[in-house]
Design brief:
single chain; alpha+beta
């Protein structure tokens, strides 16, 4: 209904009408709406959000029974019915239904989890209600609302600008224009565009689906990207399917040449193929990623794109902002430097006062807050009236305010980067020498410098002095950086501060002293740019960094083969966040930075990022364990079945047994998403050589052990074929589940305690498998004596396989190669 109501509201026709006519039509004014009227309009027009097309849950559930894998299972059901093998039919249907239910439920839960996390990132808007400014969720905006837009904001709805100065608006997300466009009073700003410069009030005239962005978004279907790791696992799945089809084809040809019943052979071949296909793979992937995302949000990191978990596990270079991430972002004001030595105490007080006049408390800017807090007498500001305020922007690097004194005299004040303020000032030739000395002195002590100037009676800028600002490092930053280095992550500091300040801060943090001045990055010649890229890779940090430098740094590191994480908080950081393999928006970042990032931090500091890397590496370990387990088990079942049929013309297990094996395995393996694992001390890479090598070794030895028990049962104890099949079913089930405990560690199986949920899941399914075999449900009863023999036999081979696994790892990872195994910590679910 919301969508229909939105279409009835004001829309695109109001982009060009006179602003006074629009105010009249919307029954609004520059003072905004009352809360009661806004609530009425919210009911009339609906929420300011794109109405998501709801998928019919029943139809979504039925999709789990449509596709190549379900088709093969369904064909097996039909063949079972034609052959009148009713127990097989029931069990195969149970497998089909169980996989559908599990897949649907876990994807549903994963979707709910991500939706809940995304809700925490809902855009905010400053709105005037009942003539008071208040901060609301942007979804609560209605036509007629007056909103306040500032640098870095994403415009929350289509609006017309009210009185004020010109803006720079980035509409690249809507129009593809690479450069910001200029907008002034009366012009339209569209929902989804980003303010690059300026500050102004605006009148909302269209919300939700009626906005330019909303109408475009409704025409575009969402696309789902697949991470590199998911692609690798899907390749494994395709490999296993092809292997299964090849071996089953051999079985079919041999069976036809022998004259075996066609229907029975076809049914068995289909069921064997189904058992070999990693049916649970998509479910395991979604469960593991969703569990990881939920865990990360408890650590203060919200994942906006699930694939970022895998990318974060591989990050080996982390480019970190200094302010707020490595430092406390609590600037304190030192003793100012004044260019006029006469009446020094009084003049330094004036320098602070004029800097305070060029600041605004409601901006929540740390520099403005430090200046205002450093003002000795706050009531001094009451003697002045603010006429206009131009906020800081990264291009001009200063603020400016027009002030009226009590006697009616008007003047302007400004504060910002000292070089910028000096360039404005008429007295720069006279004072530049002593100012540079003062700045150098402050920088050597780790202080940032802030230039201050005001206009004289002729409206000429006069440089007054320098304010020193100090941002102390975070208490835990040095230890966190040391932890990152031990984990194989190189931390590079990025700051807009001058080189001496950056060097001083880097040494206090233990980063190193090789700090590059980014102002020298403008090199175009090929040989110079190659040398620059090498310098960027070797540097410990960068000073005087501009937005384009961040982008350049990320690209240079990526060209050297690094997986780069980049932190940022401002609208100017968005391009670098987007370019990075894993963009990380720090706490209190702008809407634009959050939109460009893959991970959004809700807590300040670098330690949150390092915790997130640990969690992502543990998730990667779980996925690797699953991949090795799945390959090993598929090889074991397929090779054993194929060799038995070709060599002995004997089906060692029945189709219903194969289906039950697959059902119990899929049920237990889901719990691996909650397992205790160790994070690697090195950035994670998908090493197919190790995965296939370990899996193949375990799979082949599993075939040998299966034939060993087969020989004992048939030749030594002379079991009949039906009991021999039950014996082999129990052996494959027990040995298969024990393989989970082998693949989950690189050391001995006892080196990491399994999680309780994994232990309960495996033990529960094995108890059920044992009871099925002992009491003969859908098969010949085996009895407890033989069940204990199978368990004992499987445990002996389990111990041998554990030794074999260690030998394979030693062979694949030669001595002296550090795979990070010695620097891991156990983590429950994390």
């Amino acid at each position: 209904m919301g969508s229909k109501r939105q279409q009835q509201g004001p829309g695109r026709e109001w982009e060009t009408v006179d602003i006074e006519e629009l105010l009249h039509t919307l029954a609004s004014s520059p003072a905004g709406l009352s809360q009661a009227e806004a609530l009425r309009r919210l009911r009339e027009y609906g929420s300011n959000e794109i109405q998501e097309r709801k998928t019919n849950q029943l139809l979504k559930f039925l999709t789990y029974f449509w596709g190549p894998i379900p088709w093969m299972i369904e064909v097996a059901v039909v063949l079972s019915a034609l052959a009148r093998h009713w127990p097989d039919l029931v069990i195969i249907l149970l497998l089909l239904f169980a996989n559908g239910v599990i897949g649907f439920w876990e994807e549903h839960q994963a979707g709910n989890a991500i939706a809940a996390l995304q809700a925490k990132l809902a855009l905010k808007a400053q709105v005037k209600r009942d003539q008071q400014w208040t901060t609301l969720e942007s979804r609560e905006l209605v036509p007629g609302d007056v909103i306040h837009l500032r640098l870095g904001d994403i415009v929350p709805a289509d609006a017309r600008l009210l009185d004020g100065y010109t803006l720079q608006v980035d509409q690249s997300a809507l129009t593809g224009e690479s450069l910001p466009t200029t907008r002034s009073s009366g012009d339209v700003v569209f929902s989804g565009s980003i303010l690059r410069r300026g500050e102004i009030n605006a009148l909302v005239f269209a919300t939700g689906g009626s906005t330019y962005f909303g109408k475009t978004a409704e025409l575009v279907q969402s696309a789902h990207s697949v991470s590199h790791f998911q692609q690798a696992v899907l390749k494994i799945g395709n490999y296993l399917i092809l292997l299964a089809v090849l071996l089953v084809s051999v079985i079919m040809v041999v069976a036809l040449l022998r004259g075996d019943p066609l229907l029975t052979t076809l049914q068995f071949a289909l069921v064997l193929t189904v058992a070999a296909i990693p049916v649970a793979m998509p479910t395991v992937l979604s469960v593991t990623m969703a569990v990881g995302a939920r865990l990360l949000t408890k650590r203060g990191a919200i994942v906006t794109r699930l694939a970022a978990i895998e990318e974060l596990a591989g990050v080996d270079v982390l480019c970190s902002d200094k302010t707020g991430t490595l430092t406390q972002n609590l600037l304190t004001l030192g003793t100012p430097f004044c260019v006029d030595p006469s009446g020094y105490e009084n003049n330094t007080r004036l320098v602070t006062l004029y800097a305070a006049l060029a600041s605004r408390s409601d901006n929540k800017d740390p520099i403005d807050r430090a200046v205002l807090d450093g003002l000795a007498e706050r009531q001094d500001l009451d003697r002045y009236q603010l006429l206009h305020f131009q906020p800081f922007d990264p291009v001009h690097k200063r603020t400016e305010a027009t002030i009226r004194r009590g006697d009616g005299q008007e003047f302007r004040v400004t504060k910002g980067a000292p070089q910028v303020i000096l360039a404005l000032s008429c007295n720069r030739a006279k004072v530049s020498g002593i100012v540079e000395l003062a700045i150098s002195g402050f920088a050597a002590r780790g202080f940032r410098s802030l230039g201050v100037a005001r206009t004289d009676a002729h409206d000429h800028w006069q440089f007054l002095g320098v304010l020193p600002l100090f941002d102390p490092p975070r208490r835990e930053a040095r230890a966190t950086i040391a932890t990152a280095h031990r984990m194989g992550v190189m931390v590079k500091m990025l700051t807009g501060d001058q080189l001496p300040i950056a060097v001083e801060t880097a040494e206090k943090l233990g980063l190193g002293s090789m700090i590059l001045d980014a102002s020298g990055f403008e090199l175009s010649q090929t040989d110079q740019s190659w040398r620059l890229q090498d310098s960027i890779e070797q540097a410990d940090g960068f000073a005087q960094v501009f937005p384009e430098h961040k982008f350049q740094i990320v690209q240079a590191l990526q060209q050297h083969g690094h997986i780069v994480g980049m932190t940022g908080d401002g609208v100017n950081d968005a391009p670098a966040l987007k370019q990075a393999d894993c963009g990380i928006a720090v706490s209190d970042s702008t809407d634009a930075a959050r939109s460009a990032a893959s991970i959004v931090l809700m807590s300040p500091g670098l330690s949150v990022i390092i915790d997130a890397i640990k969690v992502s590496r543990r998730i990667f370990q779980r996925m690797t364990s699953y991949a090795i387990y799945r390959i090993a088990e598929t090889l074991r079942v397929l090779l054993f079945m194929t060799a038995s049929i070709l060599a002995f013309n004997f089906y060692p297990v029945t189709p219903v047994m194969i289906v039950m094996l697959a059902l119990l395995n899929d049920g237990a393996i889901l719990s691996i998403a909650y397992d205790n694992v160790l994070y690697s001390n090195c950035p994670e890479r998908w090493n197919m050589r190790i995965v296939l090598g370990v899996a193949s070794a375990l799979g082949v030895v599993g075939v040998v052990s299966a034939f060993g028990l087969f020989y004992l049962g048939e030749r030594i104890f002379h079991l009949d074929r039906s009991h021999l099949q039950t014996l082999m079913y129990l052996k494959l089930s027990v040995a298969g589940h024990l393989t989970i405990f082998l693949t989950r560690t690189r050391g001995p199986f006892w080196s990491i305690r399994p999680s309780r949920i994994l232990l309960v899941a495996v033990c529960g399914t094995q108890l059920l498998a044992t009871l099925i075999a002992v009491y003969g449900w859908f098969m010949a009863p085996l009895g407890w004596n033989w069940a204990l023999v199978v368990w004992g036999y499987a445990l002996i081979w389990f111990m041998l396989n554990d030794r074999l696994k260690l030998m394979v790892y030693r062979f694949l990872i030669p001595k002296g190669k550090d795979d990070g195994e010695g620097f891991r910590e156990a983590g429950s679910m994390g």
